[in-house]
Amino acid sequence: MSTRVLRRSSLSCMIAFLGALQSGCSSDPIPDPEVILSGALRAIGGVETLAGVDLIDAVATGSGPGGEFETHVTSASDGRVRFQQTTPSGHLTAGIDSVGGWQLEGDSVRALAASIRTFIRGHELHLLALAPKTRLTAPVFTGETTFRGSEAFAIGFKDDLGGDVVLYYARNDTLPIGLQLEDHLNPGSPAVIVVFGHWQPQEGLRLFRDAAFLQGDERFTYRYTSVQVNPADGALLDRPVH
Predict the structure, then answer these.
(1) How many domains does the chain have?
(2) What's the pTM value of the predicted model, to 2 decimals?
(3) How far apart are CA 190 and CA 228, in angstroms?
(4) pLDDT single digits (tens) 151-196
(5) Helix (H, G, I), strand (E, B) or coil at 232
(6) Is the pLDDT of residue 13 over 60?
(7) CA-CA distance, 146 to 46, in Å (whole number)?
(8) 129 membership: H or E segment, kind and range
């Protein structure tokens, strides 16, 4: 699946819908979620620019209750991903390719647990912002709300395990501002809230450079030291061979 996930024909609907909201008119009937998603494409860089995005490679330094860590996520629009994270308690290298999920454990490669698969998907933040339908299913407009103090539109999705995911888009320009995820690693725990921040222009796009994962009283901050669009190294997604 490519980043060509939204129809150009919905742009006129989006313009009419946003115009009605800004003028204070009723938003009946409930809009197609594609309207909001098309608006997000425009806010990030436009349909044509995003259609050329096949791969995003992001490296972040972070800090949380357990100390400092580093996360490296390489995401392809066709569904592949490679995830590496080093924390004070250990290191995880895992990924998803056309064969399935995999995890490097010592000198061997084993199948990836479904809960870790959703954990990895939840860290593909840039691709979730740019092309959520390459990672999530069943989009539905769930209404207008407030997200971290900002007026927002909410679009609900389903993750790989059927869990609820909500993406939030700023009401004034439909820029993605964050999301809410289920924590499948710890059933029954509070939902994870992710906030995007510090947007910067890059290669015709707008990409965020900060993110915060909030769960209960815990906060994990991510500062992206490198975000590459379509990096030349095609081996970034390769499954280890042992």
Answers:
(1) 1
(2) 0.87
(3) 32
(4) 999 999 999 999 999 999 999 999 999 999 999 999 999 999 999 9
(5) coil
(6) no
(7) 25
(8) helix 125-130
* Helix (H/G/I), strand (E/B), else coil: 22: helix
Residue 48: strand, helix, or coil? helix
Is 184 within the bounds of a domain?
A: yes
Q: What is the CATH number of the domain that holds 190?
A: 2.50.20.10
Residue 7 binned pLDDT confidence (cut-offs 50, 70, 90)? very low
Return the structure tokens found at 145: 């709300």
**With left for phi above 0 and alpha for psi between -120 and 50, is residue 34 left, alpha or beta?**
alpha
d(CA 121, CA 8): 27
Q: Which residue has the tokens 């066709």?
A: 78
Measured in whole angstroms, how far is the alpha carbon of residue 101 from the centre of its chain? Answer: 18
**CB-based contacts of 171, cutoff 8 Å, min separation 6:** 21, 144, 150, 151, 152, 153
Confidence grade of residue 242 (pLDDT, cut at 50, 70, 90):
low
- Domain range for residue 25? 10-237
Q: Is residue 43 a part of any domain in this protein?
A: yes
Write down the mean pLDDT value for the chain: 89
What is the Cα–Cα distance from 72 to 70, expressed in whole angstroms?
A: 7
Residue 27 pLDDT > 60: no
Bridge-based pairing of strands 101-105 and 81-87 is unpaired
With vertex at residue 219, the alpha carbon angle to CA 103 and CA 195, rounded to the nearest 5 degrees, is 85
